[in-house]
Q: What sequence folds into this?
């Protein structure tokens, strides 16, 4: 008699899953990533880690290498793998203040478009709402309200009594006083037709003082350096005193134009506000006072008495010969 063979499922000797339902702090990963045949295990683990991070987290190579035991070189290689297969995107963007910052985009599906991801989320929300509506029991019908009785209309006034027929009839109307003719009610005057809106007239700017005219001309020329620096007449009138202070402090007009139009942000929303800020912050100091020139020394001359060379504005005696001549008695 042959011994019986026990049939055992083939998967009993392989992997066995013990699953617990997650209700918070979990990340959904597709099998196209978890079982990718070309990506390394480090790249797959890095993709899962990136998808679990919140928006705005620091995902530089140094930051990730400090979090895990892998070196920066292995982290950089894994990022290049994810970038090759469309699970990661790395670009550089310029901020309004001119700084260039890196931007990293993690895709839960290779190179998924944002609109497609949003549509997938909307469809998932619709499925949840449909399931909730299907499981919610229908409320019982509300009872119909009772019909209110219709009130019977009754007049609020009493009928006037009829005049008796005992009074004698008259051939014509009798009047105690002069006949009065009823005045006709005055007809209402037609309302005046409003005039159509007049055409708007441009507001004429206030004439600038003569000392601000050079500054106003320089501000108007800024658009020749950059078309984005186109200013209105009112802006020029408001900014001209600030540029006049620059010119009073000794700033050259060409240097002022270069300073005000250099390194403009992108995009430039308000050129007048930017120029007002630069005129205030970058105001140059006044030039230092010039020192008086040193006096020019006298020329060298020969003494008429001892032929000594000395400095003097004109030829004559030196100091010693002059003192000796003063000490001699007068003849």
A:
């Amino acid at each position: 008699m042959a011994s019986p063979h026990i049939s055992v499922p083939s998967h009993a000797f392989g992997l066995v899953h013990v699953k617990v339902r997650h209700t918070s702090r979990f990340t959904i990963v597709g099998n196209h990533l978890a079982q990718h045949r070309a990506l390394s295990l480090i790249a797959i683990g890095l993709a899962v880690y990136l998808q679990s991070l919140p928006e705005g987290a620091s995902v530089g190579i140094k930051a990730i290498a400090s979090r895990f035991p892998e070196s920066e070189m292995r982290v950089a290689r894994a990022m290049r793998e994810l970038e090759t297969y469309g699970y990661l995107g790395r670009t550089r963007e310029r901020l309004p203040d001119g700084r260039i910052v890196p931007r990293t985009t993690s895709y839960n599906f290779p190179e998924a478009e944002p609109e497609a991801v949003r549509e997938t989320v909307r469809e998932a929300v619709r499925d949840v709402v449909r399931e909730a509506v299907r499981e919610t029991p229908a409320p019982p019908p509300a009872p119909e309200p009772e019909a209110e009785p219709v009130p019977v209309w009754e007049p609020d006034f009493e009928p006037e009594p009829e005049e008796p027929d005992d009074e004698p009839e008259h051939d014509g109307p009798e009047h105690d006083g002069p006949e009065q003719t009823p005045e006709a009610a005055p007809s209402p005057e037609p309302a005046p037709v409003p005039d159509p809106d007049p055409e708007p007239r441009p507001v004429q700017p206030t004439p600038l003082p003569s000392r601000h005219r050079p500054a106003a001309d320089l501000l108007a020329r800024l658009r020749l350096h950059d078309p984005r620096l186109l200013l209105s007449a009112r802006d020029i009138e408001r900014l001209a005193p600030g540029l006049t202070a620059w010119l009073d402090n000794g700033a050259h007009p060409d240097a002022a134009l270069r300073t005000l139009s250099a390194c403009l942000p992108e995009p430039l929303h308000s050129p007048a506000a930017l120029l007002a800020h630069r005129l205030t912050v970058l105001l140059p100091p006044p030039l230092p006072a010039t020192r008086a020139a040193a006096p020019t020394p006298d020329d060298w001359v020969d003494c008429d008495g001892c032929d000594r060379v000395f400095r003097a504005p004109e030829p004559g005696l030196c100091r010693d010969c002059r003192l000796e001549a003063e000490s001699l008695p007068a003849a």
About this structure: The chain is about 35% helix and 5% strand. The chain has a mean pLDDT of 76. The radius of gyration is 51 Å.
